Amino acid sequence: MQVLYGRHHVRVFRFGLRLVRDEQIAEDLISEVFLDVWRQAGKFEGRSAVTTWLLAITRFKALSALRRRKDVGLDEETANAIEDTSDDPEVMVQKKDTGEALRKCLTALSPEHREIVDLVYYHEKSVEEVAEIVGIPENTVKTRLFYARKKLAELLKAAGIERGWP
To answer: Which range marks the domain in which residue 119 is found?
Structure first.
């Protein structure tokens, strides 16, 4: 353990320091990491390098320390100064109604257009990925997406919904 500590404590400290940006917390991380290593040495399977294992433990400990630090550092005055940006009940109902109208309008699109819109907006695929999935050229995907958006805008306008959330 002494040899392991001697070889890796500087690397663990520097990595932890880059994550937490506080020397005292980084020092504490070294202790926590090597204590965990001592306790869990039997669980190390050798599927990765020792340094990879150590840095993974360090990262986990650093993120936990950052979460604790954020929780502790919030006093009542600071908490009251944070603006509540969540939607009020009226806006939530409007969004729900808009979402239902949007889903209804999507079903009115042609299957080809609906498929492209689904892949791009709901599955967050790029034009290139959609072209590969559907088996059509990228320019065809772009064209279908253009006309699908245009048709969807018309359908939404006919349903009484303008672009964007209220």
So the answer is: 89-158
